[in-house]
Design a protein that fits this description.
Blueprint: E1 2-3, H1 4-7, E2 11-14, E3 19-29, E4 35-41, E5 50-54, E6 58-61, E7 66-68, E8 74-77, E9 84-85, E10 91-92, E11 97-100, E12 105-114, E13 122-128, H2 131-137, E14 140-143, E15 152-153, E16 158-160, E17 169-170, H3 173-176
């Protein structure tokens, strides 16, 4: 399982020439929580287009680098194409409240987990109640429901099925990276 925040900042290397084409700046998702692609921080200037790589062009998402097929995998994108992203899109997933369909807030989104080689579906969410609560009680892991359509990714909240509070599990302190890199 891969934590998205561990991918942010990794170098992106194209395998044809072994050249670094940028660093992972963000990732974006569709409305069904499938990973669509990564946004590159390639030292772009103010008025230059954003650079991105569609997820199907990613060969490996490793511990130390993300490998893509070729330099042709990098494309120019408009910011409007990146609707739902973790940090920078029109809808930012980080810190969105996670609420059950019956109105109980479970926390705010801190991180997402996905399987690097078994598709693009999010397999779980890391939730926080804030820095002090993280220190006192830790963060919580919420596994994704079996039916991905049971989660509604909205503009101001993430709606999960009723009873999701019963599926919460504590995240081990070493896994939550509280305070790591200011995140």
């Amino acid at each position: 399982m891969i934590r998205l925040q561990h991918v942010i900042g990794l170098p992106v290397i194209e395998t044809d020439a072994g050249k670094r084409v940028g660093y992972v700046k963000d990732a974006w998702f569709d409305e069904h929580w499938r990973l669509d692609g990564i946004v590159l921080d390639a030292g772009r200037r103010f008025l230059t287009p954003m650079k991105s790589v569609r997820w199907h062009h990613v060969l490996v998402c490793g511990d130390d680098a993300v490998l893509i097929m070729s330099a042709d995998s990098v494309r120019k994108s408009k910011a409007a194409e990146v609707q739902r992203s973790f940090y920078t899109g029109l809808i930012r997933l980080k810190d969105l409240p996670v609420v059950t369909i019956d109105g109980q807030q479970l926390g705010r989104l801190s991180d997402v987990y996905f399987e690097g080689f078994q598709g693009t579906q999010i397999v779980g969410y890391e939730l926080t109640d804030g820095f002090v609560s993280d220190l006192m009680e830790g963060r919580w892991w919420l596994p994704s429901p079996e039916d991905p359509d049971a989660v509604m990714l909205g503009e101001d909240a993430i709606i999960v099925p009723a009873g999701s509070e019963n599926r919460l599990e504590p995240v081990a302190a070493s896994d939550s990276d509280i305070g790591r890199n200011g995140l």
